[in-house]
Amino acid sequence: MSIGMEQLFWLYSIFVILLFICGTYCILATFNLIRALIGIEILIKAATLLIIVAGYITKNMALAQAIVITLIVIEVVFMVVASGIILGLFRHHNTIDTRKLKDLKG
Amino acid sequence: MTIDYILLTILLLAVIWTVMTIRLIRAVVGLAIVSVIVSIIMFRLSSDLAAVFELSVCAGLISVIFITTISFTSRVSKERLRIRRKERLSKFWALPIIIIAAIIILSRYHPSLNIMLTHAVPEPDVRKVLWNMRHIDLMGQVIILLVGVFGVVVLFKEGRK
């Protein structure tokens, strides 16, 4: 791997790590389900960016793009179903605060 | 390289704003901005098709889904918002410090990434890869979409009166 590519990969890797930290912090620090979904979305963005950069430096852009497109489709379906679950919870409990959702507690 | 630094810095700032802002709508707008910047980075890294997908689906459709979900939930009163703002400040003050510490630590570390690459092959078209090499992925996508539709139908079904 050439020096330029190595620098580029390391630069993007640093920012991907920072994105992972932000996403994980968002999930851990909040009790709001929609905000937790936003945290998951940030994690997915970081993964997408890493796949694209890896494809770019290994000259496998077509494969990387195919994987990213699959990832985006899965992401959308996940978001739609998760939003439906959140709305269902809101209808039943009138809240999306995880501290107040105790029905499944053993 | 300079424009990469600028784009990535804006991306990080948008993500921090998304995480730390109090209003959910603003967080969703921040997420859309993050998607736009990621798609610009994809264009720069010559991933045109993935960038178009990212821009239209992630910045567009997912923002619409989030805004629809938020609009179905109830609005928070001003008093409650003030209390939440104080709570959030006490919860999220650590994030900028963690980010700055991570930047300092990671920028001092210069690993030698001696990754052995395979021989560069002529770049095939992404559509050929998707339809010929990764057709199982496509089948998986179709199945996941159907599962998503089924899930939405089940979740949004009204109970019998």
Mind sketching the topology for me?
The complex is a heterodimer of chains A (106) and B (161).
Chain A: H1 3-29, H2 33-57, H3 61-93
Helix pairs in contact in A: 1-2, 2-3
Chain B: H1 2-20, H2 24-44, H3 48-72, H4 78-92, H5 94-108, H6 126-133, H7 135-155
Helix pairs in contact in B: 1-2, 2-3, 6-7
3D architecture notes:
- Chain A is mostly helical and 106 residues long.
- Chain A has one domain (3-100): Helix Hairpins (Orthogonal Bundle), CATH 1.10.287.3510.
- Helices cover 80% and strands 0% of the residues of chain A.
- Chain A contains three helices and no strands.
- Chain A has helices at residues 3-29, 33-57, 61-93.
- In chain A, helix 1 (3-29) packs antiparallel against helix 2 (33-57) and helix 2 packs antiparallel against helix 3 (61-93).
- The longest helix of chain A has 33 residues, at 61-93.
- Chain A is elongated and about 55 Å long.
- Chain B has 161 residues and is mainly α.
- Chain B folds into two domains: 1-106, no CATH class; 125-156.
- Helices cover 77% and strands 0% of the residues of chain B.
- Chain B is built from seven helices and no strands.
- Chain B has helices spanning 2-20, 24-44, 48-72, 78-92, 94-108, 126-133, 135-155.
- In chain B, helix 1 runs antiparallel to helix 2 (24-44), helix 2 packs antiparallel against helix 3 and helix 6 (126-133) packs across helix 7.
- The radius of gyration of chain B is 21 Å and the shape is flat.
- The termini of chain B are far apart.
- In chain B, 20% of the residues are buried.
- The mean pLDDT of chain B is 83.
